[in-house]
Amino acid sequence: MSDYKQAVTYQEVCEQYPKWGVLASSLKENASKHEAFLQPLLEKENLRIVLTGAGTSAFVGEVVAPALTRKGRRAEAVPTTDIVSNPRECFGQDVPTLLVSFARSGNSPESLAATQLADQLLSEVYHLVLTCAPEGELAQGRKDQENSLVVLMPEGSNDKGFAMTSSFTCMLLSALVLLGAGSVDLLAPLEEAAAHLVQEKQSDIKALADKLPKRVVYLGSGSLRGLAHEAGLKFLELTAGDHVSFYESSMGFRHGPKAVIDEDTLAFVFVSSDPYTRQYDLDIVNELRGNLGTKAVVALAGAPVELENSFVWPGLSEVPDAFVAAVHVIFAQFLGVFTSAALDKNVDNPFPAGDVNRVVKGVFIHPLES
What we know:
Blueprint: H1 8-15, H2 17-29, H3 31-42, E1 48-52, H4 56-70, E2 75-77, H5 80-85, H6 87-90, E3 97-103, H7 109-121, E4 125-131, H8 137-142, E5 148-152, H9 166-178, H10 187-200, H11 202-209, E6 215-220, H12 223-238, E7 244-249, E8 265-271, H13 275-292, E9 297-301, E10 310-312, H14 321-342
Parallel strand pairs: 1-2, 1-3, 3-4, 4-5, 6-7, 6-8, 8-9, 9-10
Helix pairs in contact: 1-14, 2-9, 2-10, 4-9, 4-12, 9-14, 10-14, 11-14, 12-14
């Protein structure tokens, strides 16, 4: 087993939650500037909010979109990879649009192209750029544009390791607050719950990783389905694909995807805090435990659950699922790191041959004729 404690990625997982306090202070200090740009847009009755990014950055949007829809917003998560390859489908309706771009470095070709295509195809478009790199091409290209607002994440959130960790959680929490899914004051209890996870639960997570599950399944509902997508990717990336992962909604898993489970599968269910939705999450927990056994199915929750083999984060009973996702994902990040180390991978660079890169390479952007 490689020494994961020396890995930059492990340290970044452990150290991300203090950045949330820095983020909260920044959001409060710049609230008037942010509101001056966003409030007139959010008051437009026909505003379409498109949340975009690639890979993990796209999954930020998948967590945020249901939370905004719950607040009555027209919000959709559309990856930059879909926008760039199918721009006339993504922007088929020429309505006032706020394109929210999530980008760790801001140097991915698709990130830049998506904003340019929106400008080309839409008559009224605005850009909210959430990025971790002030020197990145996306931040530099949009910072002086009248129809754009660039919001930078706290220093140190531009992860040095291959896997996105604090970049994901900081962009997630920023978007939720800026777009009105919840108050900035929610970041304080999240920080406390994450501290509890990091300081008290690592050995329990490592014990799960030491089983070296060949297949891992993550399930969730609403915003937590988007989180399951990100959690699955963390496991797949950090094990360099040697051990596979799968994600789905709690209810959708029965409709064919359940075929993925076998005796070497470890399943994780993110249990919603919404009283109605959680019933369906708990149903699949109980069903899978009947298939795999109690020890092979782990429930993770913000609100208390009366279940053996579960992790419940303190102080989050009244916190919306999309915010709780920032704590849940730390669990998934640790599981990926510990499994990667147990497989003797390079945790900071699981693909030393460069088959998969930190910033995507090999993408050619074809021009779109008007």
